[in-house]
Amino acid sequence: MSSVLEIIPLGGIGEFGMNCMAVRYGDEMLILDAGMGFPEETAYGVDVCIPDFDFLEEYRDNITAIVLTHGHEDHLGALPYILKKFNVPVYCSHFTAGLAETKLEEHDLTGDTLIHRVEPRDVVDLGIFTVEFIRVSHSLVDCFSLAIRTPVGTIIHTGDYKVDETPVIGEPIDLRSFRRYGQEGVLALLSDSTNATVPGRTPSERAVIPAFEEIFAEARGRIIVSAFASSIHRIQIVLDVAQQFNRKVCVLGRSMQKNVEVADRLGYLDIPDGLLVSLNQIKDLNDLEIVMLVTGSQGEARAALSQMATQMYKGVTIEEGDTVVLSARIIPGNERLISRMIGNIYKRGANIIEEKRRLIHVSGHAAQEDIRIMTEAVRPKYVVPIHGEYRMLFRHKEFVKNHLGFAEDNIILIENGDVLELDGERAMIVNKKEIGRTFIDDSGFEEIDSETVRQRKQMAYEGLVTLVITIDSNTGELQAQPEIVTRGVRGFDSSNGLLREAQMVVASAIAGASRETLRDESLLKEHVRVELKRFIQKLTGSRPVIMPVLVQV
Ligand SMILES: [Zn+2]
Q1: What is the pLDDT of residue 444?
Q2: Across-strand partners of 297?
Q3: To pair with 319 at 20 to 30 A between CA atoms, which of 32, 272, 409, 548?
Q4: How far is the CA of 261 from the centre of ligand 1 (A)?
């Protein structure tokens, strides 16, 4: 058994989302977070992707537990999929467990899964590893960093964090525990890079309260606030300010309703009696008494806000006089969707307030001065930037080198699949594993392989050709003219003579086929497919998906 610690990111390094990491010593392994991400191939029926957990197959008997830092989708969303493959216990906070359970229910997994709820400063022995859960501040509640004692030294995984000394809900970040580890000695700090390009400190969650108060004071109609469903601090602020201005709150959108329900049930939200109203109840209120808290800040077509902006959402549309508050940042890639939605909201005569115009959103991630506070508290030997696109990881490295005095060799930039080996003395990337990603079909919870996505993409760009050939099962002779139907193929349809020529190409391919080919259905299909493909590509430049169907009579 080797006496080195291996850190292997399965996702979340050099990309936004899909955070997941394996930590291995000898024949024991912990999985830290199991997040989902958002693939670029959204147009092909794929909404989300998850790490390719097949890589873990060779360690099947070694995985001790899955430890979750917090409940955001990019840390939690892949949990059902990894649990279906490896049924190991899960350790997380109460709130994360609440979100995890609703997710596991959707996958019918609640009966089989053991979730251990832990408190801040709990220390749990997980085989050779000892994990302490350290409270950090973030846009969500009940979030942890992980201090993991290993035989070669302690590593600290920050999870997502910012240094918020005045959060809306719960206690501030537990810097004292980080300093305690710093005094003891920390081998490596794996640290959130999402905001490493941003100078200064990230404002407290409280910083948005004045702007909300102003907006509520100015509004002359209904107020519609759209935020991330997971922004529990923000939701509490909207509830508080609504109460202060004698408005009632109607929560719309499935994920918003679910998160409010979980946070309320577990005691994280403070909701005065009678503050929340249903859609039916708002019909009896006048506009100045109404706040709607809705999903859809990213312009998602199926979310409440987009639908209210273009058509009815459960009987509600945006109207003249409404004030719409977009209390969220733009996730890269969503700019066009959001811009279109904002246009639709203006068309309806509503006023819209975006992040750029008022302080209605603050980030949940550490900016450079937060990174300074964390790094100086922990005083690690090595800094390993995690969570973020490569640009952010690189700037994290630059900041730590130029402003915190770390030597180049003590800052390690890793990528997904890298095996970072630490033996207490040195740290180096010794290997790279091929770790892909798995797509999840947006119709539900089905995994689909990358070949399927590739075919969908090819059909979308190049079109589809079906080819029906009818042959005599004894002689292998063509019994009828080959039937060719095309859909969406550029320069190749019934309007020109190419279809006729293509039929002849297929006929001569069959006539020229060897006896073996004619006897074997799959060989024959492949033979005509290749011939037809060559013909179409040569004459039109198109490379459609070709689907041969063989009828034997
Ligand atoms: Zn997060």
Answers
A1: 64
A2: none
A3: 272
A4: 19
Instruction: Enter the tokens of residue 548.
Output: 């041969």
Share of the chain above pLDDT 70, in %: 98
Q: How far is the CA of 140 from the centre of ligand 1 (A)?
A: 7
CA of 310 from ligand 1 middle (Å) equals 30
- How far apart are the C-alpha atoms of 37 and 56, rounded to whole Å? 19
DSSP 317-334: ---TT-EEEE-SPPPTT-
In 424-507, beta strands by DSSP E: 427-432, 437-441, 447-448, 464-471, 483-487
Expressed in angstroms and rounded, the spacing between residue 193 Cα and the centre of ligand 1 is 12
- Predicted TM-score (pTM) of the model is 0.88
What ranges in 173-313 are assigned the alpha helix state H? Answer: 175-184, 209-218, 232-244, 254-265, 279-282, 304-310
Greatest Cα pair distance in the chain:
86
Give the count of beta carbons closer than 10 Å to the beta carbon of residue 458: 15
Please, what is the Cα angle at 482 between 477 and 485, to 5 degrees?
Answer: 160
Q: Measured in whole angstroms, how far is the alpha carbon of residue 55 from the centre of its chain? A: 20
Q: How far, in Å, is the centroid of ligand 1 from the Cα of 395?
A: 20
pLDDT digits 0-9 by tens, 144-155: 999 999 999 999
Residue 381, classified by CB atoms within 10 Å of its CB into exposed (0-12), middle (13-18) or buried (19+), is: middle
What would the pLDDT profile of 58-91 be if each residue is shown by its tens digit? 999 999 999 999 999 999 999 999 999 999 999 9
- Hey, what are 116's tokens? 């251990």
Residue 500's CB: how many other CB atoms inside 10 A? 11
Count of beta carbons in the 10 Å neighbourhood of residue 130: 14
Please state, in angstroms and rounded to a whole number, the distance separating the CA atoms of residues 352 and 323.
Answer: 6
Distance (Å) from CA 36 to ligand 1 centroid: 12
